[in-house]
Design brief:
The protein is mostly helical. 89% of the residues lie in helices and 0% in strands. It has helices at residues 2-45, 49-62, 67-101, 105-119, 123-157, 161-174, 179-207.
Length: 208
């Protein structure tokens, strides 16, 4: 009987020891999880999102049902998603600006239209839209100027100075600081004056 009592006591003691160890393990896990939650929060506030994500996942390994950790995980995921969205925006903006710098406003327009599908309300996109629109308009004006100057040179080659002056006069209203237009205008005026003098002299000779 005494042996049975001893064996039962040993069994109860072992169970108690096991229970104590389980409690200690659970406490250590809770302490570690809480430490990781605080660490993840600090990393989130410092914009160390990858580290924060790693910390909160480790915390949930210790306390899978912890509501604070679960909520923080969602916050971190949202921050990571927002950062990725911002990264894509900045990459897209850089491509648009690059196309503008290379004098390709049509390419910039295409790239910007794609960006506007996802970032229509971003102030940066609105500013870019103004820049792209301005660049397209300027390119259209330069093309129009080039076409006009081609016509003017043809008219000048035919010595139709009055027609050239009329064309250049209209062009100067849109491009008052364009040196080539001003030079051609002055040249055409000079040639028209010379032409009129020559015609006047010819008329005098015929009338003599």
């Amino acid at each position: 009987a005494r042996q049975l009592i001893v064996e039962k006591w040993n069994l109860n003691h072992a169970e108690a020891q096991s229970l104590v160890e389980q409690v200690r393990t659970a406490l250590r896990k809770r302490e570690r999880a809480e430490t990781l939650i605080v660490q993840a929060q600090r990393e989130l506030e410092s914009d160390q999102l990858t580290d924060a994500y790693r910390s909160i996942l480790e915390s949930l390994q210790y306390l899978p049902e912890n509501k604070e950790a679960t909520a923080l995980l969602e916050t971190i995921r949202a921050a990571i998603k927002a950062r990725e969205r911002q990264r894509r925006l900045m990459e897209g903006v850089a491509r648009v600006e690059g196309a503008l710098k290379e004098g390709q406003p049509e390419d910039a327009e295409t790239l910007l239209s794609d960006l506007e599908l996802s970032y229509a309300t971003a102030p940066m996109i609105k500013q870019l839209r103004r820049e792209v629109t301005s660049a397209l308009e300027e390119k259209r004006r330069r093309q129009q100027l080039a076409e006009t100057l081609t016509t003017v040179r043809k008219v000048c080659s035919e010595k139709k100075w009055a027609d050239a002056i009329e064309l250049l006069s209209r062009t100067l209203k849109g491009f008052p600081d364009e040196e080539e237009v001003r030079s051609l205008f002055a040249y055409a005026q000079e040639q028209l004056e010379l032409q009129r003098r020559a015609e006047h002299i010819e008329q005098l000779v015929r009338d003599a």
